[in-house]
Amino acid sequence: MTVEAHSPLIRKLSAFVALSEAELGVLDRLHRRRRTFVAGRYMVHQGQSGQVAYILSSGWVCSYKIQADGTRQIVDFQIPGDFLGLRSVLLRTSDHSFEPIVNIEAAEVLTSNLLDAFAQTPRLATAILWAASRDEAMVVEHLVGIGRRDAEARMAHLLLELGSRLALVGMGGKKGYDCPLTQYHLADALGLSAVHVNRILRQLRESGLVTFRDGHVAFHDYGRLTDFADFDLEYLDQTGPLLA
Amino acid sequence: MTVEAHSPLIRKLSAFVALSEAELGVLDRLHRRRRTFVAGRYMVHQGQSGQVAYILSSGWVCSYKIQADGTRQIVDFQIPGDFLGLRSVLLRTSDHSFEPIVNIEAAEVLTSNLLDAFAQTPRLATAILWAASRDEAMVVEHLVGIGRRDAEARMAHLLLELGSRLALVGMGGKKGYDCPLTQYHLADALGLSAVHVNRILRQLRESGLVTFRDGHVAFHDYGRLTDFADFDLEYLDQTGPLLA
DNA sequence: CGTGGTGTTGACATAAATCAAATACAGTGG
DNA sequence: CCACTGTATTTGATTTATGTCAACACCACG
């Protein structure tokens, strides 16, 4: 109970596998080292080899890459329950940079503790890796969106996807959700200019599909919106786990 | 020797870790089930849960997603030495579709055999997973390119990246490489129209940077091209392995 | 010799970027 | 309380990159 209270990760994993007491205990121990970061300060620098990962427990983060010309491409957003830097810890591979969008709370996870946890509870390891794999699938979906959808559909798709992910941790539903992103964040994620993002948001609002305003996303016609955005839950709805 | 002759994978992995005789033997056994596929016919259907992966030994493949409106986004190309469907085998997750670009040869790898191999030789498992992780990094780089680079830089970057990957398996260098892709493939990978791809290729050719013609890519000024494309090898040049 | 896939080029249409400027608003220091 | 600052949003005018449509050349292949 108290565990669930401070761990959206547990909530998320529970949606897919029933966690045993032992597994809950292991997860709980992974949450020992609580840390906070303030909005705007980057957490992990591009190329920095990570000895440490984080489990985000509250707030939003984005992972991004900066190009030589200074433009930024946001690769993904992380919401409570998501891992930050999991792959770079497991594979010592350099990754993108992370920046907290608001002040956040996260649990610091040392490589050794994570590997211990994985060794103790393979089922848990599988669940975590599977969730991470889902995140990768979303990056692919972003790629498809940026390459082949127009601005309006891209925006609609992103807002829907964030809604689905938030729903998994109880922070949103088909009505909408609170969202601390600025229009600049959306622009950098969608490969658009901030000005154009603003116009697109207006169009979506005026056509009665969705409103993004004052830190809140409100779906006005969820069915029509999913239709319009060609939003396919399949790549999120993985059923039937996992490692053989 | 005979192993190396038919396995670009071994060549690729050898660039990062010195493989023992035992490990080479395990790899060799993974290559037992030789199969061929003809160009154009898809291999793995979008959403099909994979019981089987492939190690590509000759030819080119692309992985892609088709959208509701029929447009296609190529997510990545696979060249000899690359795995196809590794993630879907390990995590039973649905993935993209695969299509051979030319007639190809591949070794079929059953899930159970792969897991056995991983259990026998953890170092090999690490090397393979690390190579796979490198591929994921390239998908991210594509995302950045499509989102934030103009068509010319995107094209230049893709051609350079393919060159680097081919060099790892001895199929290309800083002079150029053979490339069976059509301009349609390039268009679908870069999120452009085929017509525009043609124009961009002309520009690159006329500015003396690179020529793509008759199934061959020729770099005319490698240094200037990497500069122009903001091509950073860092995301390919992972040094210092791997799993702790 | 047709025929279909591929490449090439031109004319035109359009989505999105860029430039510019006004507004709103929260925080900050006087 | 107020002026001041910076950030976020909004909107219009214009430019630019890229897509779409159309036509033709080339070539391997049946």
Secondary-structure topology with pairs:
The structure is a homodimer of 244-residue chains.
Chain A: H1 2-6, H2 8-14, H3 21-30, E1 33-37, E2 52-58, E3 61-66, E4 72-78, E5 83-84, H4 86-91, E6 97-100, E7 104-110, H5 111-120, H6 122-148, H7 151-168, E8 176-178, H8 183-190, H9 194-206, E9 210-213, E10 216-219, H10 222-229
Antiparallel strand pairs in A: 1-7, 2-5, 2-7, 3-4, 3-6, 8-10, 9-10
Chain B binds a DNA duplex (30 and 30 nucleotides) through helix 9.
Give the gist of this structure.
Chain A folds into 2 domains: 2-132, Jelly Rolls (Sandwich), CATH 2.60.120.10; 141-235, Arc Repressor Mutant, subunit A. Helices cover 46% and strands 20% of the residues of chain A.
Q: How many strand elements of chain A?
A: 10
Kindly report the average pLDDT value of chain A: 89
CATH topology of the largest domain in chain A: Jelly Rolls
CATH architecture annotation name of the largest domain in chain A? Sandwich
- Low-confidence segments of chain A, ≥5 residues, pLDDT <50? 240-244
Report, as a whole number of angstroms, the end-to-end distance of chain A. Answer: 30 Å
Broad structural category of chain A: alpha+beta
What's the CATH class of the largest domain in chain A, please?
Mainly Beta
Q: Note the overall shape of chain A.
A: globular
Question: In total, how many domains does the architecture of chain A comprise?
Answer: 2
Reading the helices and strands of chain A in chain order gives HHHEEEEEHEEHHHEHHEEH
For the largest interface, the chains and their residue counts are: A-B, 48 and 47 residues
Quaternary status: homodimer
As a percent range, the share of strand residues of chain A is: 15-25%
Helix content, binned percent of chain A: 40-55%
Strand order of the largest sheet of chain A: 1-7-2-5
Pfam families (chains A, B): cNMP_binding, HTH_Crp_2
Protein name (chains A, B): Crp/Fnr family transcriptional regulator
Keywords (chains A, B): DNA-binding, Transcription, Transcription regulation
Domain HTH crp-type (chains A, B): 149-223
